[in-house]
Amino acid sequence: MSSAMNVLKSWWHRLGSPRSFYGIAGRLAPWFLGVGVLGIVVGFAWGLAFAPQDYLQGNSFRIIYVHVPTAILAQSVYMMVGAAGLVLLVWRMKLADMFMVAVVPFGMSMTALALITGAIWGKPTWGTWWVWDARTTSMLVLLFLYFGLMALRQAIPREETAGRACALLAVVGTINIPIIKYSVDWWLTLHQPSTFKLTEAPSMPPEMYLPLLVSVLGFYALFGGLAFMRTANVILERERATQWVQATVRQHVQ
Amino acid sequence: MFFVLAVALFPLGVGPGPERLAELAPGVLWVLALLSTLLALDGLFRRDYDDGTLEQMVLHAQPLFAGVIAKIAAHWLVTGLPLVLLSPVAALMLNLPSEAFGTLMVTLLLGTPVLSVIGAVGAALTVNLKRGSLLLALIVLPLYVPVLILGSGAVAAVVDGVGASAQLAWMAALASLSITFAPFAAAMGLKVGLE
User: Fold this and answer.
1) Which of B110, B87, B118 is nearest to B173 (CA)?
2) Is A164 touching B (CB cutoff 8 A)?
3) pLDDT digits over A23-55, tens only?
4) Is the CB of residue A153 less than 8 Å from the CB of residue A162?
5) I want to staple A225 with a disulfide (CB 3.0 to 4.6 A). Which of A4, A32, A251, B83 is the partner?
6) What does residue A241 show for φ and ψ, rounded to 5 degrees?
7) Could you read off the pLDDT of B59-84 as tens digits, one per residue?
8) Once rounded to an integer, what is the mean pLDDT over residues B89-93?
9) Is A224 in the B-facing interface, judged by CB distances under 8 Å?
């Protein structure tokens, strides 16, 4: 039992050191990127060209293969940022902060993409670009939460302080996300009883569902690859005073 | 004062028709309560930061959150409580049906402490920044969404003749949750900001 704990502990410490994470990230990033690109290409091609038309929405439903993955990523990236924030606050692990720096812009662009594709989808389906629907509203709030994180980091000059402030904000935001989501859901049921309902077929047939799944997995893998790459870049930038970074850079430059 | 002034501006903007005002009243009152709390938030720790009191509080042997709770309570007494007391006047001006006055006051009584404690976290994080107030709004307003929805929803429900006990219960839950935890987060934010 205790030996297992020790293995886990040493693994945790090794993962937490920027240097060994840099090595791991460098080895894993290409795999994740490859799987991600493959998944997205296969998912898109399958979904856009081969999946059957929706009986109600015709071809316009096909934007789902972009919309749903971006929306899922937008939410789960914020959760991951919140978890990283907790790790930073509790264990003061530098790597967690570097991870946050690396992935927050990605999450923000995913949120923006989800809103934009949602608007594009909304036009033919609901007849309008924007509806104060429960999901769109909570996505909009999520976008503002990302804005807050970015702005707070840029406003604080000292790196370490900025990291811990953002971590605290991310944790508070993560606690609030479910509350916001439920209150918005509830607000909708109070104000407009299902005038606009996403015309989702009760159960999607597998020909439509599988490409979506492939595409979601592709986006996750792409996120993994980009997160590894971007975190590795942040490590190089922040640890530039250390010998191993200088040695690594010299090795690659020559 | 901002609250009453802004309430007086609304009929000038949307027209003095009593029905329309009554329909808008719950939302308008709550949005304005939100904004006036936000306006006052920037000063929560600012003055103490400028004259060094805040650092003394952080260094003091007494746990920081106790001081933070006291600061927030004092802040609420001068910004939140007047809002609660003035709200019937503002509601009269906006022609809110009188049966909703009680609910409006109860929601404000439950909601403004939540606004204050959550705002304190944002104020703590931005206390030593040059242009903190804009950032404060950006950080805090998304977190205020549930309070706004529940508060105006409760008032609107009473106006429509439906009971608001569910919203009130939720608001009470939110209030106890945030009053319990947010002062710790605010104290932590102050420590982060001052290090």
Assistant:
1) B110
2) yes
3) 888 899 999 999 999 999 998 888 888 877 776
4) yes
5) A32
6) -80, -15
7) 887 888 888 999 999 989 988 899 99
8) 88
9) no
